[in-house]
Amino acid sequence: MEAIASADGVRPRVPWTSVTTAALGAAAIAGEALLAAAGMLVPDPVVLALTWLVGAVVLLLAAIIARRVPGHPAAVLLAAEAFVLIIANSTPPESIPATDGAWMLLYLPLAILLLTVPTGRAASRRWAAAGWLLTAVCVVFFVLCATPARMPPSAALEVMALAMIPLFLLLLVVCAAAPVVRYRRGSDEERLRLRWVMLAGLSLPLTLLLCWARYLVLGGPDLVAIGLVTMMIAIPSGTTIALVRPRWFDLDRAAVATVTASALAFLVLIVLSVATIAVGVAVVDWSPTAAVATTTAVTVTVVAGYPPLRRVLERMLYPERARAVAALRALSGRVDQDGAAPEDVEHTLRDALRDPGLVLGYRMPGASSIRSLAGEAVTMTDTVALVHVRGEEIGAIVPSPARVTRVGSDIARTAAR
Description:
This protein is 65% helix and 4% strand. The chain is mainly alpha-helical. The longest helix is centred in the middle third of the chain and has 31 residues, at 155-185.
């Protein structure tokens, strides 16, 4: 007892988020056990195993947030998402007719999550009202769908239930816009965390693109399940990284790569859609010659178009990186032509990154520490970018403490040249 007591002899209180997360996890396990005992689980073992796997991953992420960020409601929201996902997808729809409206609950925790990240609170009372209204819509829809299971069907109830769907979709769009609006007004730290959430949110349009591709190629939506599983894992994962370790790796490069690939996929699908409409049949029914020619043309176009499109998008999304790389290349040219000093890299980076406190550190041969040009030891942080030449670490770009984002690896590579 004494070992777990605090310094003043009072046992530390467990945050409500940790208790609720654990309770939801236990409820999911107990619910599955009851469904199994009643013989009400889905007969398909693949669907059941996939449901349990995704649910377990989301529960694990909820536990990580509850442990590392005590008191943050994201842990409870992810645990609630896992609970609904496990119970709803492991039960055949016809086994419990009263739960026909439960599908809305799959989206409710993630929508509320988008309203509250990264601070754990809505940005304003209006945004909070959107969350409460969405919750009310889900509850009303669930009750309306459950009512016919206990009384004769009613046309009025059916109309009311159908009226809830467009309102539900509109409120989902509002929740999806919340991180974007918060990003415009947030601090540098909040923006870094929100970029993780928005990167994970790209899984939604990618899911739609995957479904679109399936329709074009085979004429059916079978692959949409893969996209939905990816989205159910990607959004909780992005949120967990945003709250626990937002400086894990170079997020901006991953974001640019994802946006570039999505844009190319969108353009390819537009071309294939036009071709499919012109031919009148799905791609799978094309002649072998046409299919091979189309595949070759698409592959060559994507490979050739990816690098320039990536550079354009990088300049648009992250102008700071493009500005720093261009300044370093100009300095390299002056070093070769006009005899500019290589040590001017530090001043160039300070101007390009608009960080007067930035320091360029060097590691002397055989030395264990990195020192500045003035010979002082530099402090290594999560925002530091190491500089390598032929696989050997020769220095580091060390931003000022005020900077919250990591210096891009492409800037470090350019500086090494």
